[in-house]
Structures are given as structure tokens and as C-alpha cells.
Amino acid sequence: MAADSRAFSEGKCSGRVVQAANRSLRDQFWNRYSDFAQRRAAALAPAGLMLIPGSTTGSLQAEMLGLESVVTDEWHVIGASSDFEFQQTRPERLLGCNLQVTRSSPDNLEVLYLRSTGDVEVLPTIQQYGYIWTTLGRPTHGLFTLDEYAEVNRRWVHLGTFGLRASAPRAIENFLDLAHFPFVHPGYLGVEPHTEVRNYDVATLNGGRELVARRCKFQQPITPETTDIIEIEVLYRVPHPYCAILYRPSALDSSRNDLFVAYMRPASEQETVVCLSHSTLNQNDSDAELRRYPQLIFGQDRPIVENHLPTKLPLDFREEMSVRADRSSVMYRRWLLERGVRYGTMRSE
Amino acid sequence: MSDARGGTPMCSAEVLTAFRSHDNVRLPKWHPVAGSGDLVQRHVFEAQLFGQELAIWRSNGGAVNVWENRCPHRSIRLSLGANMGESLRCAYHGFRYKAATGQCCDIPSERGRRAPTKVSVKTFPAMERLGLIWTTLDATASCQLEQLPSECPATKLYSMPVNASAIRVAEYLGDYSFRPTATLNETTELGETNFCWKVTNPLTVEATASLKAFVSRVLLVAQPVSEAVTVVHGCLLEDIPCDLRMPALRHHCDRLSALRAVIELDTTA
Q1: How far apart, in Å, are the Cα atoms of B147 and each of A86, B29, B30, B141, B240?
Q2: Cβ–Cβ contacts within 10 Å for residue A144, how many?
Q3: Within the 96-115 window of chain B, which residues sit less than 8 Å (CB to CB) from chain A?
Q4: C-beta separation of B203 from B222 below 8 A
Q5: CB contact under 8 A, B6 and A116
Q6: Most CB atoms closer than 10 Å: which of A55, A197, A229, B249?
Q7: What is the rounded CA–CA span in Å between residue A243 and residue A238?
Q8: Residue A2: pLDDT band by 50, 70, 90 thresholds?
Q9: What is the pLDDT at residue B27?
Q10: Do B6 and A66 touch (CB under 8 A)?
Q11: Does A270 sit within 8 Å of B108, measured CB to CB?
Q12: Measured between alpha carbons, how far apart are the two ends of chain B, in Å?
């Protein structure tokens, strides 16, 4: 925990070096990608449809969709490769666009974008952190870093892929929120009367590219059966407009963390696909055992997240009244505003 | 814009405007939004009027609260919350709002730090008449229900949702036919009954059926839920003997169902 906080406050991975490295990687990627797209074109095109080999530039794509390029030129999660059966094709949605996803090999997915005009485009995919990612535009950077993924003797478990009838930014705010624990997860993540949220720090890091909430302390029941309370301290990281990570000190080694990661794909402005991932040092419990608890928590959050009125997140601060415990939510909204992310939010016209 | 963005549901102001421009009709200000019996103790009832979602609940003292169905903090529907008797508690963060005023009286995450701010839920006026809960979205409306029959015994009928606009539904209510309550246990033909309809306003009809010496009066009111959905509320304006209560409710439920089928068939055609 402490180690992480320090790494973030020192801005370990910010700076121009990373950006320059990204740029050369990016050029290499696009050169290789256009070859690939040409080759796939003939094989994949449904009969009678014209195929565009990914020639559209990011900003053009954004303009055609009427969306902001900061969102189209971003990597979005499609799912864990295990979500898709080998050689089967399934329709999916991303930013309101229709996709056709096929698991072409044991660890890769083929993603086609079916335009409303009838044209078909092959979208690039990358595999990272155990998930498949795609984009409608041209990302100017790679996916955010998750250093823990390279660590040894650490276990990663895919907790499941879930559909939510909610906007992705609303779901992210729910993920970052502490104050709802005693009411939505009573006995599990919180319990009355221990409802107070103490002040915590929220800051942007990495040149404004990510948001971090540190020293988030909350009183939690040890088990649902007892009234004994323990104070936990966690860290939240938002490295992507629609992804958030929870760092919680491991019960086995307090110098290292357990992680809960929510990778969210805005299927449309009011529908979201959430991929939940968990990393732990616990080598004993089975995957099924590790999945039970977070799936229960997710099930408790669902009716809340799906009942916002309006569904989309307001960026105008007059729309909703905020209190001190909402600091991460307030900062997240400000961060979205500054980055120009509008998808899933209400624009004040 | 483009197909990438979903449409936003119409807000109440737009729905209201759509209604007004519809036939240039003068709509009543007060509308029924629930039956008195819908407000069970410690329950929160959800309704809609002109697209405006409402959370309706009765406090311990019996007073009715008609509130905007939205917590001012993070916009969660208050109908998910808990009716605590004297206040309503939001399901998300436990914020509590006082009955009658809708003023916030508890912010659990801030406990021990400061008193709640001036925040309050948007409230609407409420009235209980003829077994129905009435409200108005118009802040300037007087406290008078327009052209309702004066206090008289009333038996609330089962409410009937219809997939059509309220103006359209009200047109059909103008020839609602039924049998006088006292004749329900006999085998008299419906055709021998005489009807009389009084349209008191564009959404309200008072229908009278008379057969020989038996006369029954029914008040029917169309509640504009949204532009395309209506709930028909009705009540029999008479004292009904116990043994005729169920037959009467069943009879009107059948009549309203038949009417709904006709309206929806005509609307989709």
C-alpha cells in the first residue's frame, strides 16, 4: 500500500520518455496492422459487403460517429478471451456501434465493425492484462500500465463479464464510492452506525492522464456475523475514463496488494459491459471460491447503478449536490470535463 | 446527431408542451397518480405524470407525500428507498429526507461533522379525494380540484393502464357503458340500459347508467403517464352493499379491459 502511494506521488511513470517510446511503438503497430488488415479483408468480409482496411483516421472516425476523438481513439475492453467460444461469432456493441466478435485462436479475438452503411471494417485488437482490447479510432498511446501484472507469484482471476443497464461513468463512480458500503453492502463492506467517511486525497498523476484517490479509510465489519470492526485503507486508481482499480493490502503480505479491477466497455451511453478482474497472493482458494464474494458485491450494486435518474452522469455541478465523501466523484467529473470525455455524460447544451 | 447516441427520454416539460399543442385543449391542473390503497404502510409507491417520475409515500401520521423520484445527491430513484415513517431514506448513501418538506435531515457519511445543508427533495402538493391521490406539477395551481363531484360515498375501481395518449383515451371514455350496480346479480340485457355522459374536462368523464329505477354513476379520470401511456382511474359514486362489491369491481374491470383492447387496437392500426 505505502509503496504504491509513494510510487504514484513520485510520478514514477510520467514524463516524455514514455510518450516518445509510445509513439515509435505506435508507428510500428499501425504499419504492421495495415498489412494484417489487408490480408484479413478477403477472408472475413461477409458476402457482398465492401471492406475498408482500417484506413480511417481517428479524428475522421470520431467525426463520422459524432463522438469525441478522446473516446474513439482509446482502447476499449471487449472481454476475456474465455468469454468467447472458439470459432464462434457473437454480436457486441461498442460506443453504440455494432461489432462482430469471433474467437479465431485460443487467445485472440477477431473484431469486425459493421457500419450502418453496410461497410465492414476490421478493427485492431491487442491482448493485455488477460483481456482483449479494441479501438474504433487510432489510439495515440498504449493501454495504461499495470505493473503488478508482471509480478511473480501473483495470481489473476477473471471474476466475470457482466452487462449493466447503466452509463459507464456512473458505474465507475459507484466503484470509487465508499459512503454506500453500510447501506448497499451491509455486513460485508460496511455496517451501521460506522458510516463516516474520513477525508482522503484525490489527485491527478502522469500529466493528468490518471486519477488517484489515496488514504481512503473506512470501518468494515470483519465478518457479516460479528459486530467487530476493522479499519481498512485502500487506494483507487482511474487510469482510463472507463477503468478503475482498487488496491487493498494483502492479508498475507502487508507490503503487497490485492487488486480488484473493473474494465468497463460503454456498449452505448446507457449500457455498459463490465469485466471484473482480481489479483491476489492467495494460492489456496479455487477460482470459484474467489469469485463468489465479488460477484455477491456486484449483485448488490447492480440495482443501485441501474436506477439513476437520469441514467447519464451530469458534469454540471449544479445538477447533483455533493458532500465531502464525494471528493473522488467530484474529481472524476472534473477530470472527465478537462479531458473532454463526454460519452455517457450529460452535456449541458 | 448519429446512431451512436441513445435518445434521451422526454422530460415532463416537453411532454406537457406536446400535450398542450396536441388539440389545443385546456388540461386540468390536478391529476390522480395513485389509489389511497396503493400507499401501504411504510411503502414507497412509484408513479409518473407527464413523464415526471414520482415517489409517493404516506408518513406515520397519514399525510401523503408526492416527491420527485430522485435523490438530490446522486440521483438514485427514491422509490428504491425506505419509508422510515417520518422520513424517507435513500437506498444508496442513507441520506434522509423529512416528510412534508422533503428537507434533508441526515447525511450518514458526514455524521459528527456538520448539520445537513439546505438540500431538499423537490416536492409536489398532494390531495386525497374519492379514494385517489391527486397532485399537480403546476406550482401556481390553486388548492381546488376542478369540477369533481362534491363529497359523496365512493368505491375505487381497479385502475387500468392503456397504451395510448390520455387525450385519446378520454375520447373513448366518453362512451363507457356499464350496468347499474344493483342489477349485476340479475340477468338483464345491457341493451336496455340508458346512458348519460358528462365530460367535465378533457381528461374526466362522469358516466351514468340507468335501468328501470336503478341508477349508477361512475367517475373516470385519465392520468397522463407519458405521451403514449395512460392510467384510467375510476370510482363508483355510490354506497355499495357488501355482497355487490366484488361483482361491481369485476364488472368494471371487464368493461375497462374491453375498452383498453379497443383503444389499443385503434391506436396501433
Answers
A1: 68, 11, 11, 14, 23
A2: 18
A3: 107-113
A4: yes
A5: no
A6: A197
A7: 6
A8: very low
A9: 85
A10: no
A11: no
A12: 30
Q: What is the 3-state secondary structure (H, E, C) of A218-282?
A: EEEECCCCCCCEEEEEEEEEEEECCEEEEEEECCCCCCCEEEEEEEEEEEECCEEEEEEEEEECC
Summarised one tens digit per residue, pLDDT across range A220-241 is 998 888 878 999 999 999 999 9
Reduced to 3 states (helix: H, G, I; strand: E, B; else coil), residue A314 is: strand
* Nearest alpha carbon to residue B75 among A304, A122, A252, A320: A320
Residues of B in contact with A116 (CB under 8 A): 3
Binned at pLDDT 50, 70 and 90, residue B190 comes out as low
Asked whether the predicted pLDDT for residue A56 surpasses 50, the reply is yes
Higher per-residue pLDDT: A160 or A42: A160
Contact A195 B109 (CB under 8 A): yes
8 Å CB contact between A142 and A27: no
CA-nearest residue to B94 within chain A is A183
Quote ipTM for the complex: 0.85
Angle at A184 between CA A178 and CA A190, to 5 degrees: 55
Please tell me what DSSP assigns to residue A17: H
A318 touches chain B (CB under 8 A): no
Mean pLDDT score, A331-339: 95
The DSSP annotation for A160-185 comes to EEEEESS-HHHHHHHHH--TTHHHHS
- Mean pLDDT within A98-107: 84
